[in-house]
Amino acid sequence: MSASEDGADSLTPAVADGANDDRPRQPRGQPLIGLALGAGAARGWSHIGVLRELAEQGIHPDIVAGTSIGAVVGGCYAAGRLDQIEAFARSLTRRRVFTLMDLSFSGASLITGERLKSALEQELDGFKVEELSIPFAAVATEVGTGHEVWLQRGDLAQAIRASYALPGIFEPVRVGDRWLFDGALVNPVPVTVCRALGAEFVIAVNVTADTMYRARVIRDDPAAQRKAAEAGPFGDKPDISFVDRILPRYFERQRGDAPNVATAMIDAFNIIQDRILRSRLAGDPPDATITARMEDIGMFDFHKADQLINVGRMAAKRALPNIFAHIPISGASA
Asked: Which listed residue (62, 155, 182, 287) is catalytic?
């Protein structure tokens, strides 16, 4: 890897010769379009709706860069697996989300991420970043140095995992001789990456634009709470698993609740991400921004994919007039 002037470690993008891509490309004479998909945990499912709406309007990104959940959706899109990641997102229930969060006892994190790793590897088995049909990069942060790393070669599933490895929550991922974690610490919405890969018109998708979001839980009504208390510590439903009882206490709280270790780390991470995002977008603003506002969506509300995908579609629709003003697409309707 070589260090670029802005301190990011990057590789020259490579596209495999003869790579097949049946997705339509921009007409000749149109600028190369880059799509920067931002971090935002569960809110990132809205990226799927954005991509669907843009495609229906005749806009197909030539270059994709993603950070954290943006790398998950962007990498699957670049691999031609958008249908599969959408089906997975829509299949999630609240209980299944917590079941996928396998507890870690290594001391390096709260979650090992092995179950998510297995799901990703099963879907993206054999995909190499440099062999994707369109240029793609996943943004990660190097442990220890804080260097911004653009993953443009090697195993796609591994690159995605490194990009979403939230410090303290997921275990860091080793790529080559580096340990990497969530890229949101250095570049939450990777506009700069798209430009470095050759994009002439960059569309940024920001899913954390509104007030700082916090994970939250919908409390049972008082009568239900009394019934649960009377039933004992394990309730009256013997099929409730360990993760159903324990994990929500770590990751979900209402405003006013005393923070535990996990929520304190997540809130601190969100504050840092918010400040870095403002600075990065001010220094290198995108040509168009799609802003998805979701004040009622918590960080771990991955089970709300239907709602989130629709929010993404609506956000893209609102941004279409500005996009078409700069890159009019023949036959598209705003």
From this structure: 182
Handedness of CA 128, 53, 59, 138 (dihedral sign): negative
Q: Quick check: is 109 catalytic? A: no
149: phi then psi, degrees, rounded to nearest 5 = -120, 130
Cβ contact 194:34 at 8 Å: yes
With a cut of 70, say whether residue 238 has pLDDT above it: no
Q: What is the pLDDT of residues 158-175, one digit of tens each?
A: 999 999 998 877 888 999
Contact 138, 26 (CB under 8 A): no
Residue extents of the structural domains in the chain:
33-322
Q: Which two tokens stand for residue 202?
A: 């960059």
Q: Helix, strand or coil for residue 83?
A: helix
Domain 33-322, second-level architecture: 3-Layer(aba) Sandwich (3.40)
Q: Which of 41, 16, 229, 49 is nearest to 132 (CA)?
A: 16
DSSP state of 210: S
CA distances from 285 to 181, 201, 260 (A): 25, 11, 36
The answer to whether the beta carbons of residues 276 and 186 sit under 8 Å apart is: yes
Is 104 assigned a catalytic role? no
Q: 3-class secondary structure for 123-137?
A: HCCCCEHHHCCCCEE
Considering the candidates 68, 163, 287, 301, report the single residue annotated as catalytic: 68
pLDDT digits (tens, 9 = 90+) for 296-334: 787 778 999 999 999 999 999 999 999 998 886 654 444
